[in-house]
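Budget justification note: compute hours in this period were largely spent on complex prediction jobs such as the one shown. Inputs:
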Amino acid sequence: MKRAIFIGRFQPFHRGHLRVVEAIADQVDELVLGIGSAGDSHTANDPFTGGERILMITKSLTGLGVLTYAVPIEDLERNSVWVSHVESMSPRFDIAFSNNPLVVRLFEEANVPVEQVPMVDRHRYEGTEVRRRMIADDGWEELVPPAVVDVIEEIDGIERIQQVARSDESSV
Amino acid sequence: MKRAIFIGRFQPFHRGHLRVVEAIADQVDELVLGIGSAGDSHTANDPFTGGERILMITKSLTGLGVLTYAVPIEDLERNSVWVSHVESMSPRFDIAFSNNPLVVRLFEEANVPVEQVPMVDRHRYEGTEVRRRMIADDGWEELVPPAVVDVIEEIDGIERIQQVARSDESSV
Amino acid sequence: MKRAIFIGRFQPFHRGHLRVVEAIADQVDELVLGIGSAGDSHTANDPFTGGERILMITKSLTGLGVLTYAVPIEDLERNSVWVSHVESMSPRFDIAFSNNPLVVRLFEEANVPVEQVPMVDRHRYEGTEVRRRMIADDGWEELVPPAVVDVIEEIDGIERIQQVARSDESSV
Amino acid sequence: MKRAIFIGRFQPFHRGHLRVVEAIADQVDELVLGIGSAGDSHTANDPFTGGERILMITKSLTGLGVLTYAVPIEDLERNSVWVSHVESMSPRFDIAFSNNPLVVRLFEEANVPVEQVPMVDRHRYEGTEVRRRMIADDGWEELVPPAVVDVIEEIDGIERIQQVARSDESSV
Amino acid sequence: MKRAIFIGRFQPFHRGHLRVVEAIADQVDELVLGIGSAGDSHTANDPFTGGERILMITKSLTGLGVLTYAVPIEDLERNSVWVSHVESMSPRFDIAFSNNPLVVRLFEEANVPVEQVPMVDRHRYEGTEVRRRMIADDGWEELVPPAVVDVIEEIDGIERIQQVARSDESSV
Amino acid sequence: MKRAIFIGRFQPFHRGHLRVVEAIADQVDELVLGIGSAGDSHTANDPFTGGERILMITKSLTGLGVLTYAVPIEDLERNSVWVSHVESMSPRFDIAFSNNPLVVRLFEEANVPVEQVPMVDRHRYEGTEVRRRMIADDGWEELVPPAVVDVIEEIDGIERIQQVARSDESSV
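Corresponding output:
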């Protein structure tokens, strides 16, 4: 039994993430999706709560064929203990996937096997593009799975990101 | 679509919890299991990590018939903001279940519908009894679902709780 | 111009506190009431929020004749920085009043003038007695100023303390 | 009895804030001034402590005619629980006033009535202008109430903001 | 080059600790003394600050013959990340020494070599006995190295522990 | 007996720091090196852990002739209590040295004697230059003491800073 973890902020979970998940799913029996900065929400860069992102991920992966876990990871603001924190909040995993050089480095120093995910650049910038389109009301729906559209509509997410993007400062 | 949350520490997830989950599952479409004090572990009273409890719950509920979410909830040490914290980390829910009078009170003051779970006393004390039997090596397996036995064996959980129970103080 | 600070948890503000405030008010021009453990609430020992205690104090002292400030002080869990924390959250003060030996010690080590308040023992134990009577529904009203009775009734405070006192553990 | 809360950082409390307070005071019986980021101080953007800002506000509003409360609100760094945090630290309020889109959004999502304050743009930028003039020693006194001038002189505030503004980084 | 870490609270550093250090020093080239709960102070159980304990240790070990490091370790309140936290605050070490079963377990699970220190029971209870004698003014000096007597006298430590021991609650 | 504290981030400890230490050492009997932001690591601006910096400092100062203490100071994110925090984590000191205007101001307001260190500008910018050269692999070794070269090579520090510098965001 081989279990992997894929770490991201998933703000929101989009088609680039879905392609990565599908690629990893071919290689493992179970997959944890570690939702980074789970406590952040209501800003232009981090609009959705940890719970909303759990919903997006779970609903988008119902037909995937491997068992998945959507696990919120709150920030500890300490890079040096971050791997231990992830390991304590997640079911034990055999390998980690990420494209963030810092995340890769931290897993390497902790002797956890870690791999780059495929389709780096597309994945890397799609989150920013999805949020830009949400704020501009400019065709964001095609960049995310249908289940994510449903979640965002249910929580009135577009109005939220547009409103907080007008804020001088994104934290009260 | 009706979604409920059932809050507990699940140290470990035992047959009493399972009966409660099955009773709630008859009344709702989806069920969130909110894992309280998710950051606590390695003490006689809180032996297992948040990730280990996610595993116990998910593996025990595979055949349940309703969609479940196992969501770790880290302590904020502030009762007055606890309901908001749970709401931000969980998929939106319509009703909460708990037997902890404090939890019931906090949801009531926040105008969240909340109900006592059935079989109060059995549920209430079973966690303590399971941990006592684990420390004494005295037939704990019959009190938990088979999947939980597997998880605890995989993580060497009995040796862990026995060792930390010998500690003068349960936190370093 | 002489300004004093009087530190307490004020759970709730009672007639013993009021007598201390009146005694201090004769000696100073302005008085800060520092509300300790301001973030704690909804337990048998700390039933009321910081905001509810601000209300109790302000309403009880309207006719006092000296300018008062009710200032919530959240716990920092670090005795060694506690005086600096109080100084940063309060208007500057010339003298502190307390009967808690730890508080007296901390101010002394920081070279802040500090005095015992009069009527030590009565003051010291009245908070516990008020809460005991609230839980037992046994004549608590005579121990607090009339304005505090009003606040507690408005917030449904008796039902709250009775309910959380039934909780196995006082923090979720 | 109608009580409002007006949220700001009040770095420092200036004439724009005073005009807003006077406008709100006509509509309510009591007014809470929630002092945001109360724990921040000694930076060019947040020069004054929570206690110093309590003093500025209280001294500036002595003749206002409605009962006011100056309540420090420490940052929790979690937008999703911020409304609960404010509610726990403040006397209960019926309506909130703010011009910060994020604050407005958070209150709306929590079903708390919230209104924009009048004179948005003037209010919005006056804090920055007051601090710029303080650093440049360029006629800041006319932008704040006389009581605020007194407080800033008493605490040697101009020298402080000028000195910390020379710092490479505003936090140690 | 072999470097060890010896973890304790050192409240205060006493002759039992010294004997352990001398025993370990025979086996290694360098020794880190990790000062646990470094942020706790001014209570009957944790009377001395992290800095005061650094002084006690450094002054007591000047003639030891191996290079020592006295490193304060603040509590993180998370057992599952505690080993990573220690590793990040300490020079890299090859082996850990402790008699606390929890500490031993945490290092074992993190695959760090860990050994029990010799003279377990004497070491274990001497800290409590030293503090009892300090509070009772009953011959504590013979239980600690001479340099520790000097430090405690310089900081007026006996008066401090006696005063805070009279406090109803040991944290403000 | 006169003891000083010199505060810096020491990312890494370089020859500019060493010159300052040597200049201070002529004026005092003992010297504390307070390692600021001790919990930060694995970013381009703060590459090394607190423990690694303790090692760099201790190894570089073995022949200094005055007793030195390398003390990690974790961030508290509260300027107003920062001096108390430093005082609690460090052996008592008579004077502080720093070139950071904020640090100087905070010590001054706390009535702690504080002095600018000599060679301000060279010291100030050398940290940035050392890190730039590390990332560019461009002769960084000549800017740090030989013991620091050894530490950085032992921990594979150049590969670390180069890898995390490629990260989109420096905190996970």
